[in-house]
Amino acid sequence: MERNRDIDNSTLRAIAREVRKDILKMTTNVNSGHPGGSMSVADILVTLYYYKMRHNPDNPKWEERDRFVLSKGHVSPALYSVLARCGYFSVEDLMTFRKIDGNLQGHPDMLKTPGIEISTGSLGLGIGAAVGMALGLKLSGFDSRVYCVIGDGEAQEGSVWEASMAAFHYNLDNLCVILDNNNLQIDGPVDEVMSIYPAMEKWKAFGWHVIEINGHDFNEIRAALDEADTVKYKPTMIVAKTVKGKGVSFMENRAEWHGKALSPEQLKEALKELGELV
């Protein structure tokens, strides 16, 4: 699949709405998972897979594909939904999430799930893998790009900064990292637990090209990803300001939904907000 420049924002928005429904259904179905951060990153993942990235669901290992790494692997429901809706596997398979006989583990598993580039879950490690992929593509002469999503709580990990230093050192202008900056982690606000701010200035100091956007505005997401394509001799960091639990009023900006599923009754209420007849 070549990059789809013609897709409009209303289509992206409609897909993201279905992805949010999937996230809530999957996690409620097994009473487990991380719905809050999955909801905050949904618009970013939809834009990557439907607008920006070059990939092929019929040939997941296509050599010239762009690569995506979900470093904050606990928000796998969002990625699984997008992969299914792109055609990597059936949408019906989403209901096997976190089930012992299914292929959709709680965290992405490259050995079980089509479309997963590398297994993630241990926070701070995915960005290092993305740096390695970007360097490998450069050395191999491919023009493919690498995209990676990290969490703001994850940015408290020292390995994130070691990887960031290496990315600049090796002039990885084929690497674009997106910070899902919803400002909440499992124990509460990021700036109270262990502040990563000022985030933009930190990555600038590490030599990165830095862009700040509203992570739910499709125009801004698209423009930032396009801008990253034009940057030479340095990696790009997109600081995406997002809302944990985005799309459901009683979930938004609430740390309690970091790793807790909705009850069946709450699911019905949430799906109504997302426009589904239940």
Automatic annotation (TrEMBL):
Q: Does the keyword Metal-binding apply?
A: yes
What one GO molecular function would you report for this record?
Answer: metal ion binding
Q: Which residues form a coiled coil?
A: none
PROSITE patterns the record matches: TRANSKETOLASE_1
* Pfam families according to UniProt: Transketolase_N
What cofactor is needed? thiamine diphosphate
Look up keyword Transmembrane helix and say if it applies: no
Domain Transketolase N-terminal, by residue range, is 22-275
Q: Which UniProt keywords apply?
A: Metal-binding, Thiamine pyrophosphate, Transferase
* Family, as annotated: Belongs to the transketolase family.
> What's the name of the protein?
Transketolase
The species is Desulfurobacterium indicum
